[in-house]
Automatic annotation (TrEMBL), chain A:
This is Small ribosomal subunit protein mS33. Residues 82-94 have a biased composition (Basic residues). It is found in: Mitochondrion. Coiled coil: none annotated. Keywords: Mitochondrion, Ribonucleoprotein, Ribosomal protein.
Automatic annotation (TrEMBL), chain B:
GO terms for biological process: translation. The keyword Magnesium does not apply. One of its GO terms (cellular component) is mitochondrial small ribosomal subunit. This is Ribosomal protein S14. It comes from the Eukaryota. Keywords: Ribonucleoprotein, Ribosomal protein. GO terms for molecular function: structural constituent of ribosome. Belongs to the universal ribosomal protein uS14 family.
Length: 106, 101
């Protein structure tokens, strides 16, 4: 059987790609097309967790209704009361010298 | 049950990925395209590196929506295997019941 020249096979492949509308890429160069072809995952990703309805998100949804989150109000009031009794959270350190973490290490 | 910090972080990642997906894909296309000049591909790769941590799809992890556990998750129900068992036995998952024959 007579051997076929490589150039003839290449020409055949080029013609074949032309007919079937596929891209002719004899050196298998990476075109990055797979990143464009791939399905977008974002829309399905954000729907993974079921949406939780609680009072704070409900109030955010209707800001004009004048709804009050009683639990949140109570929490804020408790913080104010604690601060009055000197039981509030400590002040944030302004300088590295103030930091309590450093004192422990020494 | 209120979500724990790991679940909140995962939700943040999911929204970040969703918001930046198209731009990231465009840069990925340029950076991985061998037919483009090397300098252009390099610039695209540098741009990709400027995206934040929570814009990469690999930072998203399926966690249990009930307990926040990260392992042993049945993705179809978004539940860990134990929470799945509890809910299935309580009849809270439609179409799931304990096998018996």
């Amino acid at each position: 059987m007579a051997s076929i020249a490589a150039s003839r096979i290449a020409a055949l492949n080029r013609l074949r790609c032309n007919i079937f509308q596929t891209s002719y890429n004899p050196e298998s160069i990476r075109t990055g097309a797979k990143y464009l072809r791939a399905r977008l995952k974002g829309p399905s990703l954000i729907n993974y967790y079921p949406q939780e309805i609680n009072m704070s998100t409900f109030i955010k949804g209707f800001p004009d209704e004048g709804l009050v989150d009683l639990d949140e109000e109570q929490r804020l009031q408790d913080i104010i009361d604690k601060k009055k009794r000197g039981k509030g959270t400590p002040r944030k350190a302004r300088t590295p010298q103030e930091s309590r973490r450093n004192k422990k290490r020494r | 049950m209120s979500p724990n910090i790991r679940v909140l972080r995962d939700i943040k990642a999911r929204h970040g990925v969703n918001a930046n997906e198209i731009a990231r894909r465009a840069y990925l296309y340029v950076a991985r395209n061998q037919s483009l000049p090397a300098s252009v591909r390099y610039q695209a790769q540098l741009q990709l590196n400027t995206f934040g941590r929570y814009t990469r799809p690999s930072t998203v992890k399926n966690r249990c929506s009930e307990s926040g556990k990260g392992r042993g998750i049945m993705s179809e129900f978004a539940l860990s295997r134990f929470q799945f068992r509890l809910k299935a036995r309580a009849g809270e998952i439609p179409g799931v019941k304990k096998a018996s024959w």
